[in-house]
Amino acid sequence: MTASPSPVAAPAPARTFAIRTHGCQMNVHDSERLAGVLVEAGWEPAPPDDDVESADLVVFNTCAVRENADNKLYGQLGRLAPTKAARPDQQIAVGGCLAQKDREVVTRKAPWVDVVFGTHNVGSLPALLERARHNGEAQVEILEALETFPSHLPARRDSAYSGWVSISVGCNNTCTFCIVPSLRGKEVDRRPGEVLGEVEALVAEGVLEVTLLGQNVNAYGVDFEDRSSGRTAFADLLRACGGIDGLERVRFTSPHPRDFTSDVITAMAETPNVCPQLHMPLQSGSDRVLRAMRRSYRAKRYLDIVAEVREAMPDAALTTDIIVGFPGETEADFAETLRVVRESRFSQAFTFQYSPRPGTPAATLPDQVPKAVVQERYERLVALQEEMSLAGNREQVGRELELLVSTGEGRKDAATRRMSGRARDGRLVHFTPTGPAVDREVRPGDVVTVRGTYGAPHHVVADGDVLTHRRTQAGDAQAAGTRPTTPRVALGLPSLGAPEPLPVSTGCTVGSPSV
Protein backbone atom coordinates (compact mmCIF):
# COMPACT_ATOMS: atom_id res chain seq x y z
CA MET A 1 0.00 0.00 0.00
CA THR A 2 1.54 3.27 -1.10
CA ALA A 3 1.62 6.19 1.24
CA SER A 4 -0.55 9.12 0.26
CA PRO A 5 1.41 12.25 -0.66
CA SER A 6 1.80 14.88 2.01
CA PRO A 7 -0.64 17.75 1.60
CA VAL A 8 0.88 20.86 0.04
CA ALA A 9 0.56 23.88 2.23
CA ALA A 10 -1.42 26.72 0.67
CA PRO A 11 0.69 29.79 -0.04
CA ALA A 12 0.38 32.54 2.51
CA PRO A 13 -1.93 35.29 1.29
CA ALA A 14 -0.20 38.44 0.13
CA ARG A 15 -0.29 41.34 2.54
CA THR A 16 -2.61 44.16 1.53
CA PHE A 17 -2.09 47.92 1.50
CA ALA A 18 -4.31 50.99 1.36
CA ILE A 19 -3.06 54.50 0.51
CA ARG A 20 -4.81 57.66 1.63
CA THR A 21 -3.70 60.77 -0.28
CA HIS A 22 -3.97 64.36 0.89
CA GLY A 23 -3.10 67.42 -1.17
CA CYS A 24 -2.24 68.26 -4.75
CA GLN A 25 -1.91 66.37 -8.02
CA MET A 26 1.78 65.81 -7.28
CA ASN A 27 0.79 63.82 -4.21
CA VAL A 28 -1.82 61.87 -6.17
CA HIS A 29 0.82 60.88 -8.70
CA ASP A 30 3.34 60.06 -5.94
CA SER A 31 0.72 57.70 -4.49
CA GLU A 32 0.59 55.88 -7.82
CA ARG A 33 4.36 55.43 -7.51
CA LEU A 34 4.00 54.21 -3.92
CA ALA A 35 1.45 51.65 -5.09
CA GLY A 36 3.83 50.59 -7.84
CA VAL A 37 6.80 49.95 -5.56
CA LEU A 38 4.61 48.10 -3.06
CA VAL A 39 3.16 45.81 -5.73
CA GLU A 40 6.68 45.16 -7.03
CA ALA A 41 7.67 44.20 -3.46
CA GLY A 42 4.86 41.62 -3.27
CA TRP A 43 2.05 43.59 -1.61
CA GLU A 44 -1.49 43.66 -2.99
CA PRO A 45 -3.90 46.59 -2.97
CA ALA A 46 -6.76 46.15 -0.55
CA PRO A 47 -10.21 45.98 -2.18
CA PRO A 48 -11.35 49.59 -2.71
CA ASP A 49 -14.57 49.10 -0.75
CA ASP A 50 -12.81 47.73 2.35
CA ASP A 51 -12.37 49.86 5.44
CA VAL A 52 -8.83 51.17 5.75
CA GLU A 53 -8.56 49.44 9.13
CA SER A 54 -8.69 46.02 7.45
CA ALA A 55 -5.52 46.56 5.37
CA ASP A 56 -2.22 45.11 6.57
CA LEU A 57 -0.53 48.40 5.68
CA VAL A 58 -1.99 51.90 5.71
CA VAL A 59 0.03 54.65 4.01
CA PHE A 60 -0.78 58.33 4.44
CA ASN A 61 0.70 60.52 1.69
CA THR A 62 0.45 63.95 3.25
CA CYS A 63 0.26 67.64 2.38
CA ALA A 64 1.70 70.53 4.39
CA VAL A 65 0.30 73.52 2.53
CA ARG A 66 -2.61 74.27 4.84
CA GLU A 67 -3.00 74.15 8.60
CA ASN A 68 -5.90 71.71 8.59
CA ALA A 69 -3.66 69.14 6.85
CA ASP A 70 -1.92 68.55 10.20
CA ASN A 71 -5.20 68.20 12.05
CA LYS A 72 -6.62 65.85 9.43
CA LEU A 73 -3.59 63.52 9.52
CA TYR A 74 -3.36 63.25 13.30
CA GLY A 75 -7.11 62.73 13.54
CA GLN A 76 -6.90 59.81 11.10
CA LEU A 77 -3.88 58.37 12.90
CA GLY A 78 -5.77 58.59 16.18
CA ARG A 79 -8.68 56.63 14.75
CA LEU A 80 -6.25 53.87 13.71
CA ALA A 81 -4.65 53.56 17.16
CA PRO A 82 -7.19 51.01 18.54
CA THR A 83 -6.91 48.90 15.39
CA LYS A 84 -3.14 48.94 15.61
CA ALA A 85 -3.31 47.90 19.26
CA ALA A 86 -5.58 44.97 18.38
CA ARG A 87 -3.48 44.01 15.31
CA PRO A 88 0.20 44.55 16.18
CA ASP A 89 1.27 43.16 12.79
CA GLN A 90 -0.53 45.96 10.97
CA GLN A 91 1.87 48.64 9.76
CA ILE A 92 1.28 52.37 9.35
CA ALA A 93 3.47 54.66 7.22
CA VAL A 94 3.40 58.44 6.83
CA GLY A 95 5.05 60.10 3.84
CA GLY A 96 4.83 63.23 1.76
CA CYS A 97 5.28 66.91 2.54
CA LEU A 98 4.06 66.87 6.15
CA ALA A 99 6.40 63.97 6.93
CA GLN A 100 9.27 65.88 5.31
CA LYS A 101 8.45 68.89 7.51
CA ASP A 102 7.57 67.25 10.83
CA ARG A 103 9.98 64.27 10.80
CA GLU A 104 10.22 62.96 14.37
CA VAL A 105 7.11 64.95 15.37
CA VAL A 106 4.94 62.31 13.70
CA THR A 107 6.24 59.45 15.83
CA ARG A 108 6.12 61.60 18.95
CA LYS A 109 2.45 62.45 18.43
CA ALA A 110 1.57 58.98 17.10
CA PRO A 111 4.09 56.45 18.45
CA TRP A 112 2.17 53.59 16.81
CA VAL A 113 3.40 54.74 13.37
CA ASP A 114 5.98 52.33 11.92
CA VAL A 115 7.58 54.36 9.11
CA VAL A 116 8.03 58.04 8.32
CA PHE A 117 9.52 58.87 4.91
CA GLY A 118 9.93 62.07 2.93
CA THR A 119 9.24 63.45 -0.52
CA HIS A 120 12.66 62.42 -1.82
CA ASN A 121 12.61 58.70 -0.93
CA VAL A 122 9.28 57.32 -2.10
CA GLY A 123 11.05 54.24 -3.43
CA SER A 124 12.45 53.36 0.01
CA LEU A 125 9.09 52.45 1.55
CA PRO A 126 9.25 48.62 1.16
CA ALA A 127 12.75 48.45 2.68
CA LEU A 128 11.75 50.75 5.56
CA LEU A 129 8.70 48.60 6.31
CA GLU A 130 10.82 45.47 6.43
CA ARG A 131 13.39 47.19 8.64
CA ALA A 132 10.67 48.40 11.03
CA ARG A 133 9.30 44.87 11.28
CA HIS A 134 12.75 43.33 11.85
CA ASN A 135 13.95 45.94 14.36
CA GLY A 136 10.65 46.31 16.17
CA GLU A 137 10.86 50.11 16.15
CA ALA A 138 9.79 53.03 13.99
CA GLN A 139 11.97 53.93 11.04
CA VAL A 140 12.32 57.61 10.11
CA GLU A 141 14.17 58.35 6.87
CA ILE A 142 14.07 61.83 5.39
CA LEU A 143 16.43 62.61 2.52
CA GLU A 144 17.36 66.26 2.03
CA ALA A 145 17.77 66.04 -1.74
CA LEU A 146 16.38 64.05 -4.63
CA GLU A 147 18.41 60.95 -5.48
CA THR A 148 15.97 59.10 -7.76
CA PHE A 149 13.45 60.89 -9.93
CA PRO A 150 10.01 59.62 -8.83
CA SER A 151 9.04 58.83 -12.41
CA HIS A 152 11.85 56.27 -12.55
CA LEU A 153 9.86 54.14 -10.10
CA PRO A 154 7.13 51.69 -11.11
CA ALA A 155 3.56 52.95 -10.89
CA ARG A 156 0.15 51.41 -10.47
CA ARG A 157 -2.14 53.91 -12.15
CA ASP A 158 -5.50 54.88 -10.68
CA SER A 159 -7.22 55.51 -14.01
CA ALA A 160 -7.52 53.49 -17.20
CA TYR A 161 -8.16 56.57 -19.34
CA SER A 162 -6.23 59.51 -17.82
CA GLY A 163 -2.65 59.66 -16.55
CA TRP A 164 -0.33 62.02 -14.70
CA VAL A 165 3.15 62.56 -16.15
CA SER A 166 5.71 64.56 -14.14
CA ILE A 167 7.98 66.76 -16.20
CA SER A 168 9.78 68.24 -13.19
CA VAL A 169 9.90 68.16 -9.41
CA GLY A 170 10.73 70.96 -7.00
CA CYS A 171 10.40 74.72 -7.34
CA ASN A 172 12.84 77.63 -7.62
CA ASN A 173 10.36 80.31 -6.56
CA THR A 174 10.36 81.94 -3.13
CA CYS A 175 6.70 82.79 -2.52
CA THR A 176 6.47 83.89 1.10
CA PHE A 177 3.31 81.85 1.83
CA CYS A 178 4.55 78.56 0.38
CA ILE A 179 6.49 75.81 2.09
CA VAL A 180 6.74 73.54 -0.97
CA PRO A 181 10.26 74.59 -2.14
CA SER A 182 11.75 73.70 1.24
CA LEU A 183 10.03 70.29 1.19
CA ARG A 184 10.45 69.27 -2.45
CA GLY A 185 13.69 71.08 -3.15
CA LYS A 186 15.00 72.95 -6.17
CA GLU A 187 13.47 72.27 -9.57
CA VAL A 188 14.85 69.28 -11.46
CA ASP A 189 13.61 68.61 -14.99
CA ARG A 190 13.25 65.35 -16.87
CA ARG A 191 14.64 65.01 -20.37
CA PRO A 192 12.02 65.58 -23.10
CA GLY A 193 12.58 62.14 -24.64
CA GLU A 194 11.97 60.50 -21.27
CA VAL A 195 8.72 62.41 -20.75
CA LEU A 196 7.49 61.53 -24.23
CA GLY A 197 8.47 57.90 -23.72
CA GLU A 198 6.26 57.69 -20.63
CA VAL A 199 3.38 59.36 -22.48
CA GLU A 200 3.73 56.90 -25.36
CA ALA A 201 3.80 53.96 -22.94
CA LEU A 202 0.55 55.14 -21.34
CA VAL A 203 -1.12 55.65 -24.72
CA ALA A 204 -0.06 52.14 -25.75
CA GLU A 205 -2.10 50.86 -22.78
CA GLY A 206 -5.18 52.81 -23.87
CA VAL A 207 -4.81 56.08 -21.95
CA LEU A 208 -6.47 58.92 -23.90
CA GLU A 209 -5.51 61.90 -21.75
CA VAL A 210 -2.35 62.97 -19.94
CA THR A 211 -1.71 65.88 -17.60
CA LEU A 212 1.86 67.19 -17.52
CA LEU A 213 2.81 67.98 -13.92
CA GLY A 214 5.26 70.47 -12.45
CA GLN A 215 5.30 73.08 -9.70
CA ASN A 216 6.07 75.59 -12.47
CA VAL A 217 5.73 73.98 -15.90
CA ASN A 218 6.66 77.19 -17.74
CA ALA A 219 10.14 77.03 -16.22
CA TYR A 220 10.66 73.57 -17.70
CA GLY A 221 13.93 73.09 -19.55
CA VAL A 222 15.59 76.43 -18.79
CA ASP A 223 18.89 74.59 -18.31
CA PHE A 224 18.82 72.92 -21.70
CA GLU A 225 16.49 74.78 -24.07
CA ASP A 226 17.92 76.59 -27.10
CA ARG A 227 17.12 80.23 -26.40
CA SER A 228 18.40 81.28 -29.84
CA SER A 229 15.49 79.42 -31.45
CA GLY A 230 12.96 81.77 -29.90
CA ARG A 231 11.02 78.75 -28.59
CA THR A 232 10.71 77.46 -25.05
CA ALA A 233 11.27 73.85 -24.07
CA PHE A 234 7.78 73.59 -22.61
CA ALA A 235 6.13 74.83 -25.82
CA ASP A 236 8.22 72.31 -27.77
CA LEU A 237 7.09 69.57 -25.39
CA LEU A 238 3.43 70.47 -25.98
CA ARG A 239 3.94 70.38 -29.74
CA ALA A 240 5.72 67.02 -29.47
CA CYS A 241 2.75 65.60 -27.56
CA GLY A 242 0.67 66.62 -30.56
CA GLY A 243 2.59 64.10 -32.65
CA ILE A 244 1.72 61.06 -30.50
CA ASP A 245 -0.88 58.92 -32.26
CA GLY A 246 -3.77 57.96 -29.99
CA LEU A 247 -3.18 60.77 -27.47
CA GLU A 248 -6.44 62.70 -27.60
CA ARG A 249 -6.08 65.21 -24.77
CA VAL A 250 -3.14 67.01 -23.18
CA ARG A 251 -3.47 69.19 -20.09
CA PHE A 252 -0.86 70.71 -17.80
CA THR A 253 -0.57 72.22 -14.34
CA SER A 254 0.57 74.58 -13.02
CA PRO A 255 2.15 77.49 -14.89
CA HIS A 256 3.55 80.59 -13.21
CA PRO A 257 2.48 83.92 -14.76
CA ARG A 258 6.07 85.20 -14.50
CA ASP A 259 7.32 82.61 -16.99
CA PHE A 260 4.30 82.43 -19.27
CA THR A 261 5.29 83.10 -22.88
CA SER A 262 3.43 83.77 -26.11
CA ASP A 263 5.20 80.71 -27.50
CA VAL A 264 3.26 78.48 -25.09
CA ILE A 265 -0.05 80.12 -25.99
CA THR A 266 0.68 79.61 -29.70
CA ALA A 267 1.59 75.97 -29.07
CA MET A 268 -1.68 75.45 -27.17
CA ALA A 269 -3.73 76.98 -29.98
CA GLU A 270 -1.91 75.16 -32.80
CA THR A 271 -1.66 71.68 -31.27
CA PRO A 272 -5.03 69.97 -31.75
CA ASN A 273 -4.83 67.61 -28.76
CA VAL A 274 -3.79 70.30 -26.26
CA CYS A 275 -7.00 71.17 -24.46
CA PRO A 276 -8.37 74.73 -24.42
CA GLN A 277 -7.98 74.93 -20.67
CA LEU A 278 -5.55 76.90 -18.52
CA HIS A 279 -5.10 76.71 -14.76
CA MET A 280 -2.96 79.71 -13.79
CA PRO A 281 -2.72 80.75 -10.10
CA LEU A 282 -3.51 84.40 -9.43
CA GLN A 283 -3.23 84.35 -5.60
CA SER A 284 -4.15 88.08 -5.34
CA GLY A 285 -5.23 90.89 -7.62
CA SER A 286 -3.44 93.52 -5.53
CA ASP A 287 0.02 94.55 -6.73
CA ARG A 288 0.98 95.46 -3.16
CA VAL A 289 -0.02 92.02 -1.87
CA LEU A 290 1.65 90.27 -4.82
CA ARG A 291 4.86 92.10 -3.95
CA ALA A 292 4.57 90.96 -0.31
CA MET A 293 3.96 87.41 -1.55
CA ARG A 294 7.07 87.63 -3.76
CA ARG A 295 4.96 86.83 -6.77
CA SER A 296 7.03 88.33 -9.59
CA TYR A 297 4.17 89.63 -11.74
CA ARG A 298 1.48 92.25 -11.29
CA ALA A 299 -2.23 92.33 -12.03
CA LYS A 300 -1.76 93.94 -15.46
CA ARG A 301 0.70 91.22 -16.51
CA TYR A 302 -1.78 88.56 -15.41
CA LEU A 303 -4.67 90.16 -17.29
CA ASP A 304 -2.51 90.59 -20.40
CA ILE A 305 -1.88 86.81 -20.43
CA VAL A 306 -5.61 86.18 -20.00
CA ALA A 307 -6.38 88.49 -22.94
CA GLU A 308 -3.78 86.81 -25.15
CA VAL A 309 -5.13 83.35 -24.29
CA ARG A 310 -8.70 84.39 -25.09
CA GLU A 311 -7.62 85.97 -28.39
CA ALA A 312 -5.88 82.74 -29.44
CA MET A 313 -8.56 80.41 -27.98
CA PRO A 314 -11.84 82.33 -27.54
CA ASP A 315 -13.61 79.43 -25.82
CA ALA A 316 -10.78 78.46 -23.48
CA ALA A 317 -11.75 77.89 -19.85
CA LEU A 318 -9.51 79.52 -17.27
CA THR A 319 -9.22 78.39 -13.65
CA THR A 320 -7.10 79.77 -10.84
CA ASP A 321 -6.02 79.73 -7.18
CA ILE A 322 -6.67 82.69 -4.88
CA ILE A 323 -5.61 83.34 -1.28
CA VAL A 324 -7.84 85.56 0.85
CA GLY A 325 -6.54 87.37 3.93
CA PHE A 326 -2.79 87.42 3.30
CA PRO A 327 -1.06 89.41 6.08
CA GLY A 328 -1.61 93.13 5.58
CA GLU A 329 -4.39 92.70 3.00
CA THR A 330 -6.69 95.73 3.16
CA GLU A 331 -10.21 96.15 1.87
CA ALA A 332 -8.74 98.08 -1.08
CA ASP A 333 -6.39 95.18 -1.81
CA PHE A 334 -9.27 92.73 -1.71
CA ALA A 335 -11.31 94.97 -4.04
CA GLU A 336 -8.47 94.64 -6.57
CA THR A 337 -8.75 90.85 -6.36
CA LEU A 338 -12.49 91.06 -7.04
CA ARG A 339 -11.77 93.32 -10.03
CA VAL A 340 -9.31 90.86 -11.58
CA VAL A 341 -11.75 87.98 -11.01
CA ARG A 342 -14.48 89.90 -12.86
CA GLU A 343 -12.19 90.75 -15.78
CA SER A 344 -10.71 87.24 -16.01
CA ARG A 345 -14.10 85.46 -16.07
CA PHE A 346 -12.70 82.28 -14.53
CA SER A 347 -14.74 79.16 -15.07
CA GLN A 348 -13.66 78.02 -11.61
CA ALA A 349 -11.47 79.30 -8.78
CA PHE A 350 -9.92 77.35 -5.92
CA THR A 351 -10.16 79.83 -3.07
CA PHE A 352 -8.27 79.52 0.21
CA GLN A 353 -8.26 81.42 3.48
CA TYR A 354 -4.69 82.26 4.40
CA SER A 355 -3.26 80.21 7.24
CA PRO A 356 0.29 80.79 8.50
CA ARG A 357 2.64 77.86 7.90
CA PRO A 358 5.63 77.59 10.24
CA GLY A 359 8.84 77.90 8.26
CA THR A 360 7.48 80.39 5.72
CA PRO A 361 8.35 84.14 5.76
CA ALA A 362 4.69 85.12 5.73
CA ALA A 363 4.07 83.35 9.03
CA THR A 364 6.00 86.06 10.89
CA LEU A 365 4.69 89.07 8.98
CA PRO A 366 2.85 91.74 10.99
CA ASP A 367 -0.77 92.71 10.38
CA GLN A 368 -2.25 89.22 10.30
CA VAL A 369 -5.86 89.72 9.17
CA PRO A 370 -8.52 88.81 11.78
CA LYS A 371 -10.29 85.53 11.09
CA ALA A 372 -13.73 87.16 10.94
CA VAL A 373 -12.55 89.61 8.28
CA VAL A 374 -10.95 86.81 6.24
CA GLN A 375 -14.16 84.77 6.44
CA GLU A 376 -16.33 87.66 5.28
CA ARG A 377 -14.06 88.43 2.33
CA TYR A 378 -13.85 84.75 1.45
CA GLU A 379 -17.64 84.51 1.28
CA ARG A 380 -17.83 87.55 -0.99
CA LEU A 381 -15.20 86.10 -3.31
CA VAL A 382 -16.95 82.73 -3.48
CA ALA A 383 -20.26 84.43 -4.26
CA LEU A 384 -18.68 86.44 -7.09
CA GLN A 385 -16.92 83.42 -8.54
CA GLU A 386 -20.14 81.40 -8.46
CA GLU A 387 -21.75 84.15 -10.55
CA MET A 388 -18.88 83.91 -13.05
CA SER A 389 -19.01 80.11 -13.10
CA LEU A 390 -22.78 80.04 -13.53
CA ALA A 391 -22.63 82.48 -16.45
CA GLY A 392 -19.92 80.43 -18.17
CA ASN A 393 -21.75 77.14 -17.70
CA ARG A 394 -25.03 78.58 -18.96
CA GLU A 395 -23.19 79.49 -22.17
CA GLN A 396 -22.76 75.73 -22.76
CA VAL A 397 -26.53 75.19 -23.11
CA GLY A 398 -27.28 74.17 -26.68
CA ARG A 399 -23.64 73.45 -27.51
CA GLU A 400 -22.25 70.07 -28.50
CA LEU A 401 -19.76 68.89 -25.87
CA GLU A 402 -17.25 66.09 -26.39
CA LEU A 403 -16.80 64.22 -23.11
CA LEU A 404 -14.26 61.74 -21.86
CA VAL A 405 -16.50 59.71 -19.57
CA SER A 406 -15.15 59.55 -16.03
CA THR A 407 -15.91 57.77 -12.80
CA GLY A 408 -16.48 59.06 -9.29
CA GLU A 409 -17.21 62.68 -10.24
CA GLY A 410 -20.99 62.70 -10.07
CA ARG A 411 -22.10 62.15 -6.49
CA LYS A 412 -25.77 61.93 -7.53
CA ASP A 413 -25.25 59.89 -10.70
CA ALA A 414 -26.78 56.72 -9.24
CA ALA A 415 -29.90 58.57 -8.08
CA THR A 416 -30.32 60.57 -11.31
CA ARG A 417 -29.29 57.68 -13.62
CA ARG A 418 -26.69 59.93 -15.17
CA MET A 419 -23.01 59.51 -15.88
CA SER A 420 -20.31 62.20 -15.79
CA GLY A 421 -17.45 63.30 -17.96
CA ARG A 422 -15.08 66.15 -18.66
CA ALA A 423 -15.40 68.38 -21.70
CA ARG A 424 -12.24 69.32 -23.56
CA ASP A 425 -12.08 72.60 -21.63
CA GLY A 426 -12.24 70.72 -18.34
CA ARG A 427 -15.85 71.47 -17.41
CA LEU A 428 -17.71 68.75 -15.51
CA VAL A 429 -20.78 67.53 -17.40
CA HIS A 430 -23.46 65.16 -16.12
CA PHE A 431 -25.32 63.39 -18.95
CA THR A 432 -27.94 60.73 -19.58
CA PRO A 433 -26.31 57.68 -21.27
CA THR A 434 -29.25 56.88 -23.51
CA GLY A 435 -30.27 57.15 -27.15
CA PRO A 436 -29.84 55.24 -30.41
CA ALA A 437 -26.20 56.36 -30.75
CA VAL A 438 -25.19 54.38 -27.66
CA ASP A 439 -23.22 51.26 -28.61
CA ARG A 440 -24.42 48.67 -26.07
CA GLU A 441 -23.50 50.73 -22.99
CA VAL A 442 -21.46 53.79 -22.13
CA ARG A 443 -18.46 53.09 -19.88
CA PRO A 444 -15.90 55.29 -18.10
CA GLY A 445 -13.08 55.78 -20.58
CA ASP A 446 -15.40 55.97 -23.59
CA VAL A 447 -15.92 59.20 -25.54
CA VAL A 448 -19.37 60.67 -26.13
CA THR A 449 -20.82 63.82 -27.62
CA VAL A 450 -23.81 65.39 -25.89
CA ARG A 451 -25.71 68.67 -26.00
CA GLY A 452 -25.81 70.92 -22.94
CA THR A 453 -29.29 71.51 -21.51
CA TYR A 454 -28.67 73.25 -18.17
CA GLY A 455 -25.86 75.20 -16.53
CA ALA A 456 -25.19 75.28 -12.77
CA PRO A 457 -22.29 76.97 -10.92
CA HIS A 458 -20.20 73.81 -10.69
CA HIS A 459 -21.34 71.67 -13.62
CA VAL A 460 -23.30 71.40 -16.84
CA VAL A 461 -26.18 68.98 -17.40
CA ALA A 462 -26.91 67.27 -20.74
CA ASP A 463 -30.21 65.41 -20.38
CA GLY A 464 -30.95 64.66 -24.03
CA ASP A 465 -29.88 61.55 -25.90
CA VAL A 466 -26.18 60.92 -26.48
CA LEU A 467 -25.32 62.25 -29.96
CA THR A 468 -22.28 60.04 -30.59
CA HIS A 469 -20.59 57.25 -28.64
CA ARG A 470 -17.15 55.78 -29.28
CA ARG A 471 -16.03 52.69 -27.36
CA THR A 472 -12.34 52.80 -26.51
CA GLN A 473 -9.51 50.58 -25.30
CA ALA A 474 -9.58 52.61 -22.09
CA GLY A 475 -13.27 51.76 -21.66
CA ASP A 476 -12.46 48.08 -22.18
CA ALA A 477 -9.74 48.27 -19.51
CA GLN A 478 -11.98 50.17 -17.09
CA ALA A 479 -14.75 47.60 -17.49
CA ALA A 480 -12.27 44.74 -16.97
CA GLY A 481 -10.83 46.38 -13.84
CA THR A 482 -7.33 46.63 -15.29
CA ARG A 483 -5.13 49.70 -15.01
CA PRO A 484 -2.00 50.85 -16.81
CA THR A 485 1.32 50.17 -15.13
CA THR A 486 4.58 51.99 -15.63
CA PRO A 487 7.59 49.71 -15.13
CA ARG A 488 10.72 50.66 -13.24
CA VAL A 489 13.27 52.38 -15.49
CA ALA A 490 16.94 53.29 -15.09
CA LEU A 491 17.71 54.83 -11.73
CA GLY A 492 19.46 58.11 -11.08
CA LEU A 493 18.78 61.77 -11.71
CA PRO A 494 17.99 62.93 -15.23
CA SER A 495 20.97 64.49 -16.92
CA LEU A 496 20.76 68.18 -17.63
CA GLY A 497 22.89 68.36 -20.74
CA ALA A 498 21.76 69.04 -24.29
CA PRO A 499 18.16 68.03 -24.87
CA GLU A 500 17.08 65.14 -26.97
CA PRO A 501 15.48 66.34 -30.21
CA LEU A 502 11.74 66.77 -30.16
CA PRO A 503 9.58 65.79 -33.10
CA VAL A 504 8.24 68.77 -35.02
CA SER A 505 4.49 69.28 -34.84
CA THR A 506 2.72 69.86 -38.13
CA GLY A 507 -0.65 70.57 -36.57
CA CYS A 508 -2.31 73.66 -37.98
CA THR A 509 -4.50 76.12 -36.14
CA VAL A 510 -7.92 74.66 -35.48
CA GLY A 511 -11.06 76.31 -34.29
CA SER A 512 -11.81 76.01 -30.60
CA PRO A 513 -14.28 73.24 -29.80
CA SER A 514 -17.80 74.44 -29.21
CA VAL A 515 -17.69 73.90 -25.49
TrEMBL record:
The answer on whether this UniProt entry bears the keyword Metal-binding reads yes
Q: Which CDD domains match?
A: Radical_SAM
Give residues annotated as binding [4Fe-4S] cluster 2.
Answer: 171, 175, 178
Q: Name one Pfam family in it.
A: Radical_SAM
Instruction: Give its localization.
Output: Cytoplasm
**InterPro entries from the entry?**
Elp3/MiaA/NifB-like_rSAM, Methylthiotransferase, Methylthiotransferase_CS, Methylthiotransferase_N, Methylthiotransferase_N_sf, MiaB_methiolase, rSAM, rSAM_horseshoe
Where the record annotates domain Radical SAM core, the positions are 157-391
Domain of life the protein comes from? Bacteria
Which residue stretches belong to region Disordered?
495-515
Residue span(s) of domain MTTase N-terminal: 15-134
Query: Per the annotation, how and in what number is the cofactor bound?
Result: Binds 2 [4Fe-4S] clusters. One cluster is coordinated with 3 cysteines and an exchangeable S-adenosyl-L-methionine.
Catalysed reactions listed for this entry = N(6)-dimethylallyladenosine(37) in tRNA + (sulfur carrier)-SH + AH2 + 2 S-adenosyl-L-methionine = 2-methylsulfanyl-N(6)-dimethylallyladenosine(37) in tRNA + (sulfur carrier)-H + 5'-deoxyadenosine + L-methionine + A + S-adenosyl-L-homocysteine + 2 H(+)
Does Transmembrane show up as a keyword for this record? no
Keywords associated with the record: 4Fe-4S, Cytoplasm, Iron, Iron-sulfur, Metal-binding, S-adenosyl-L-methionine, Transferase, tRNA processing
Cofactor(s) in the UniProt record: [4Fe-4S] cluster
- Give GO terms: molecular function aspect only: tRNA-2-methylthio-N(6)-dimethylallyladenosine(37) synthase activity
**Any idea of its EC number?**
2.8.4.3
Q: Where is the composition biased (Polar residues)?
A: 506-515
Query: Which residues hold [4Fe-4S] cluster 1?
Result: 24, 63, 97
On assembly, the entry states: Monomer.
The entry assigns this protein to a family as follows:
Belongs to the methylthiotransferase family. MiaB subfamily.
Chain's role: Catalyzes the methylthiolation of N6-(dimethylallyl)adenosine (i(6)A), leading to the formation of 2-methylthio-N6-(dimethylallyl)adenosine (ms(2)i(6)A) at position 37 in tRNAs that read codons beginning with uridine.
Q: Which HAMAP family match?
A: tRNA_metthiotr_MiaB
Protein name in UniProt: tRNA-2-methylthio-N(6)-dimethylallyladenosine synthase
Species of the source: Actinomycetospora atypica
